[in-house]
Amino acid sequence: MLIMGATQLAIGLTSLFPVMVVSCVIFGACDGIYVPALFVGVKDVVGATNYSRGNGITLLAMGIAGIIGTQAGGWIFDSTGSFQIIFYLAAICSLVSAVMFCATAARVRKKPWTRCKMVEMLAYREKTRQEESRFRETDERLV
């Protein structure tokens, strides 16, 4: 998201065609990575049980932003005759959403039960191995 915001800012700031092409290629590559990663990030933030609800809210917000953003962009272009402000606003929105997503992801902790279950399973396995070795030693002494 940060790179996407930077490329949108670069498109708005420059009038050189090669810079725009490179920015668009980078933006497209980042968008191709961002969309699948978004759904994984939503699952990490809201958890598997609330994934459908989190996914629905995310897609609803993206749809509303698509409707409002295109209308507002057209209105801004009609008012100013330039697309620069639109790219600046898109860059600001991308950068703000990246910061918000990182802040949210940092606050969300991994579920403690997954680590505890793993530790418990490993401890149980080790305990079982120790008991088996004690039984073998006992059997060897009796024989």
Number of strands: 0
Range of helix content: over 70%
Q: With helices defined by DSSP (H or I, 4 residues minimum), what is the helix count?
A: 5
Portion in strands: under 5%
Order of helices and strands: HHHHH
Mean pLDDT: 83
Tell the overall outline.
elongated
Radius of gyration: 26 Å
Please give the largest β-sheet.
none
Distance between the termini: 70 Å
Stretches where pLDDT is under 50 for at least 5 consecutive residues are: none
Structural class: mainly alpha
Q: How many domains make up the coordinates?
A: 2
Organism: Saccoglossus kowalevskii (Acorn worm)
Protein name: Monocarboxylate transporter 12-like
InterPro entries: MFS, MFS_trans_sf, Proton-linked_MCT
Keywords: Membrane, Transmembrane, Transmembrane helix
